[in-house]
Structure formats: structure tokens, C-alpha cells
Amino acid sequence: MRNVCIVVGSRANYSSIKSVMRAVQQHPDLNLQTIAGASALLDRFGAVVDTVIADGFEIDARVHMIIEGENPTTMAKSTGLGLLELPGVIEQLNPDVVVTVGDRFETMATAIAAAYMNIPLAHTMGGEVSGTIDENIRHAITKLSHIHFPASKDAATRILRMGENPATVHTTGCPRIDLVAEIASENHRLPEKAWLEYEGVGGQISLDEPFLLVSQHPVTTEYGDGERQIAETLMALQELKMPTIMLWPNVDAGSEDIARGMRKFRERFEHGYIRFYKNFSVDTYVRLMKNCACKIGNSSAAIREGAFLGVPAVNVGTRQIGRERGINVIDVDYDRGKIIAAIQQQVAHGHYPSEPIYGDGHAGERIADILATAEFNINKRMTY
Fold first, then answer.
1. b/e for 89-106, b at 16 or more Cβ within 10 A?
2. How far apart (Å, rounded) are the C-alpha atoms in residues 321 and 192?
3. Whether the Cβ atoms of residue 230 and residue 297 lie closer than 8 Å to each other
4. Residue 187 or residue 284, greater confidence
């Protein structure tokens, strides 16, 4: 039985690895070990750990690694704190392989810890370009990893160009698309009151008419400009006054700037048409995406899941610059007039054909099978 240790550090992180966790849990030759850490443990970011447990996964360890402040300095310090805390937990669990996801600071801490401890490291969603510091972190983690699970052919090609052994690069698709594919096969809408009135604050909105789904996060390389950026998006929403569901930002540097802009907006304007949430379960969020009239902001979900679902999306600003995208996305600058025009265009257009750029819905099981059959040499590097 091979121990596979997966680190969950945020709501986006969890949605990006849930299907792998499930496939590992169900695999006869694998044992799942789960570490919850970073913002996944914090209530103000939705306490994602509670969702993980509700989904049937046991938490083997919790690692607190967030230093308050949400600025570049505390982000770097949080990475260091994660690197201080994770090795002891990983040593105690003694996994055969560690799996890390994407490009976040807790991902970097996990990668460095595993690499120095001579534990095979598997990396999902590597090889993608998106601009900002995320891309640099993602590529650095690729060079620390022993086995790669890119989501697309273009991403796999970039990993190979970095000099990685072709035998270690497996184009499995993105595990997030697995969940999207399952939900897309269902024909029913969300029950409203079961989730709509839970925890959220703001207006009492209805989904009986076209609604918007908004998620805008800080851009770490544009630190200090977040409040102005979110104000342009919020003023566009104020002009349109369509029923709107909006999430609070993630924990990256500049998060407080975004949150401050949202709080000021709530104090200044009547917003009965909009409701704010800390977090949704993966299933709820994907169902919201499937049924919304337009997805707005700078989350990669609009580009990755959005392409598969054909969701009309307006990508605001530079956070996803360079990322491979489908015909469902319109890119605009931080300008309320351009945002309004793009939303109106997308709502009028309606849904687009599905484009499986980032996977076909079977990434989790492919990754589990590879993790179960890979062989290790005495240095714990994988050979094939």
C-alpha cells in the first residue's frame, strides 16, 4: 500500500485536487493522507477544511502557516512559516509521494520541503503561463518536482522545454474539470434556500432571472492597486443592477485592499441586488457557474471550468494574462465602462459550445493509477 500525501491550502486548491483525493481514496493500492493548511483552516476564508471533512476525507494533520497582513512581506513570511511547519508533519506521516497543486505560496513551501526531504513530489497544473508571480512560482515548482501532471498539451510542451524527462510528464487533464464534467451531466438547478441564505450577507436575490457570478482576487505584482481595481468592477455591477453573487477575495498579498473596497461599496451604495459569500462547496460553485448568465472577475475558473461549460466570461485585468483560453472569454481592463459593455455582450450572447482545453473529466483516476504504478529508486526519484 503506497501512501499519497496531498496538501490542501485554499478553496481553489481543494477544487483543483478533490477528484484526485477521491480516486486515491478509492484505489486498492493507495492510502490517502491529507494535510489541511493555510487559508483552508481560516473562517474568514470559508473554513474549507470543514467542506473537506463533509466530503468524506479524513484530515491527518493541520498546519497553520498564515501570517496576517496580506502584503508581499507577509506572503513571503507565510511561505517560510509553511516550510518550517510542514517538514515535521510530513516526516511523521512518512508518505511515499507528496502531491502539490498549482502555484500558491503553500504549494511552494510543500515543494521545497518534499524536495529537501528526498520524497518524490508530484505536481499538478504545471507548465501554464498566466503572468504575475504565480507563473514564476509554478515554473519553479516544476523544477523541484519528480513527476508532472499538466492539464493541457501546451503546458506539457513547456515542461519538456524546461528540460524535464519526458517519461515523467503525463498530460492527464485538470482534476477540476472532473468535477465540472460530473455536474454538467446533471440537468437540475440548485435548490435556492438550501444554500442562498446560508452565511452570505447582502440582498435577498433570486435565481429565477439571469444572474452574475463575481470573483476578483488581488494581483500580487500590482500590490496597492487592488481597491481601485475592485471599485471599477463594483461600479459596473452597480450600473447593471443584475442579481449578483460575489465571493470575497483569496488570501494573496493585496487581499485586504480588495476586501476594503468591497466593504466601502457596501456602506456607500444600496446593494439589494448583490449578496456576498466567503466560500462555496465545489459542487455549489460549479453549479452556479453552469447556470449563471456571466462569470466576472479574474479567477482562473472562468477560463478553465468556463471553457468546458461554455460559460460567458469577462476576465478583468492582468491576473490571467497569457493563460490558454477558449472563445467564452472577453478580456477587459480595469475600466467600468468596458466591463459593463463586455458583460452586456456576454449576457446577450448566452452560453458557448464546450471546449475541453483543460481535460475531459478523467484526470483524477489517471493520476491515481500513475501514482500507484510508478517505481522508486533508492533516492526516491521516480523511474519508469
1. bbeebebbbbbbbbbbbb
2. 34
3. no
4. 284
Number of H helices, E strands in the chain: 15, 15
Say which residue, 274 or 72, is predicted with more confidence: 274
Fold agreement (2-174+359-383, 183-349):
yes
What pLDDT band is residue 287 in, cutting at 50, 70 and 90?
confident
- Torsion of Cα atoms, 97 then 102 then 103 then 106, to 10°: -50
**Which three cell numbers mark 63?**
498546519
Average pLDDT value over all residues in the chain? 89
Calculate the CA 241 to chain-centre distance.
Answer: 27
Indicate the helix (H) or strand (E) that contains 236: helix 226-240
pLDDT tens profile 189-223: 665 555 666 667 888 888 888 999 999 999 988 88
Instruction: For the sheet with 329-332, list strands across it.
Output: 201-202, 274-277, 244-247, 212-215, 294-297, 313-316, 329-332
pLDDT in tens, 81-97: 999 999 999 999 999 99
What per-residue confidence (pLDDT) applies to 45? 73
Supply the DSSP symbol for 359: -
- The answer for 286, left when phi > 0, alpha when psi is -120 to 50, beta otherwise, is alpha
Domain at 2-174+359-383: CATH architecture: 3-Layer(aba) Sandwich (3.40)
Q: Which residues are within 8 A (CB) of 71 and not within 5 positions of it... i.e. 6 or more apart?
A: 223, 253, 254, 256
Residues whose CB falls within 8 Å of the CB of residue 286, separated by 6 or more in sequence, listed in order: 15, 179, 180, 183, 305, 309
Q: Which CATH class is domain 183-349?
A: alpha beta
Q: Where are the domains of the chain?
A: 2-174+359-383, 183-349
Written as one letter, the residue type at 199 is E
Separation of alpha carbons 41 and 302, rounded Å? 25
CA–CA distance, 216 with 378 (Å, rounded to integer): 45
CB 147 within 8 A of CB 170: yes
